[in-house]
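lol ok so funny story. i was supposed to be doing the assay writeup but got distracted and ended up predicting the structure for this chain instead. priorities right. anyway since i did it might as well share w the group, maybe its usefull for someone
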Amino acid sequence: MAVGRANIVLRGLMRHADLSAEELATAINAAMERRSESKGLGNATGRHVRRWLSGETAQPQLPYLVGMMDVFNVEGSGLGFTLSDRRSREVARYHPASTLLVETTGAEEDHVLRRHFMLAGAGQLLSIAFAPLPASGRIGASDVERIRESIGRLHAVDDLYGGEQLGDVAEQFVNQIEAAMGRCLYGPRVERALYQVIGELHASAGWFSFDSGDQARAGRNFDSALRAALLAGDRMLQARVWAYMARQSWELGRATETVTIARAALDITRNSRDHRLSALLHGRLALGYSAAGQGAQCGTALARAETALDRIGDAPAAAWLAFVGPGEVMGAAAMAHRGLGQADRAAHQEEQGMLLLDPKFRRNRFAKAVHLSQCYLGANRLEEAVSTASEALDLYPTVNCPRWATHLGAFRNNLAGRDLPEAAGFVERYDLTVTAS
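and the output, tada:
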């Protein structure tokens, strides 16, 4: 290439790596330091890169050439420069030392970086493999998309089997991502996306921990998720975390806090809220009003949840929101009315909720069966209560959901003192099932 001719090969390499002139200069300096094991050695700047691209500098100095070889994982002849015989001989003594900015999609990297976690469920071990991250070099947008796909797989497991042990999995994935961020390069857009997925993972870990009955761990993860959401500037993620926190507050008997958190989530997403999220948040608000004994406000919140539900279109839902549908909204109404002391009305609504629930949400079916049995018991409909609790017991061996398993245990204890043939039979079967599991 003659002096003055633009280096289209180098420009193409940079475009493929989604790399600016300044970012390439930073990567070259890092590569030079790796070669020499001496900090501060590299002094390439964005101005150097622009001169190479324009052809103003047709033959970079040898250290810069070797640095570019490492960055793009190509031989010196593949960088688009026309080198003198002497410089060609000098470059030929070197070979790329790493793949700093090339996405790692090969089988070898996949084997090294993929992690497997074993979960008990359905009488067998489930293996969950995460998307691999680069051992070094650049994290790209496609890496982040693979992370999101892995998060989706976590929630698919939760939908079927419950969240026990999934908190460990999500937290370990966060550690893997943060380690990759410490050793790799990435641009501002990818940095924001990385904080988003870290926040999503912490939010998921918090929910899984909450569902497993570990409230302290859930709270720590929710706090970390909010911090990541702020760093990412993602209000929808903040609202998601608050939706989880509102549910936790209601479970812990903090009515006012439940209302405050749900309102904050509604306010921050007022002009950009997903209709599923609206339905979920108004349902959370209804729970808080119910716990505070405010029936009128509870009814208004439930009506708004139903209105939002009617507006849900055919667009696919985010993995964590996929459960929000007619069955979920009816379940929230049942919980709210049970809290208001309206057990018969709550039972009717949860009956409808179970009929409307998508079969793929087996964990939610277990939870609804337990809750419906509680509603029946509160309405003194004992035969129906025992029958529905038996349905929950059928699911017990294949659903790892300690929070609702605890409610089922409390239901068993409530029945144990009652002089009913159905009660005695259920207690005996419950004890055998739990022991076997």
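Residues 98-125 have pLDDT under 50 and may be disordered. The chain has 20 helices and four strands.
back to the writeup now i swear
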